[in-house]
Every structure is written in C-alpha cells, then in structure tokens.
Design brief:
The protein is built from three helices and three strands; from the N terminus they run αβααββ. The longest helix is centred in the first third of the chain and has 16 residues. A three-stranded antiparallel β-sheet has the order 1-3-2. It has 92 residues and is α+β, with helices and mostly antiparallel strands. Helix 1 crosses helix 3.
C-alpha cells in the first residue's frame, strides 16, 4: 500500500468522525501536507466530496478564507458508484 492510500483512509476516517476537514487539521492531526491532492485521489475513486470556503482569523488579526472538505450529496449519475466508508477497502 502506498502512502497516498494510507493517507486517504485517514482522511475518510477523520471526515466520518468530525464531519469535515481543512488543510490545517490535516497537517496538525494527521500529518498530511497535501490535502487537496488526497481529496483529488478520493474523487477519482468516486467519493462524493464537496468543498466550501470558511472565514477564519489569521495570526496577524486579519481574516482569510480556507477550503473545508466534507462528504457531499450523491449525484444521480454516480449513485451506483457511490462508496460508503469501509476500512477494508484500504487493507493490503
């Protein structure tokens, strides 16, 4: 199993537990520095993941927007390919 696959499994578990994930949470809690790349990998595997933007404070007292990823709503076109989280998918 390559690192990307292990990381995507950790992202799925995190999102299932916490509802969403940001790049800072991925770095801090999971040690994953390329969250957008792993989200792209998950989308190629037919996971439905949506991105929205939230406003947060930065270290200088200003505000900025960051991406937040969460499980999305199924599209009629991919209902048959929609995956539910199953840790067994990422073993071996």
């Amino acid at each position: 199993m390559n690192t990307g696959t292990k990381q995507t499994a950790r992202i799925l578990q995190y999102m299932e537990t916490h509802g969403s994930i940001t790049a800072l949470q991925a770095m801090r809690d999971l040690g994953i520095y390329r969250l957008a790349a792993r989200i792209h990998d998950l989308k190629k595997l037919h996971w439905v993941i949506e991105r929205d933007y939230i406003t947060v404070s930065n270290r200088y007292g200003g505000v900025t927007q960051i991406a937040r990823y969460q499980f999305g709503t199924r599209s009629n076109e991919i209902d048959n390919d929609y995956k539910q989280f199953d840790p067994e998918d990422f073993k071996n």
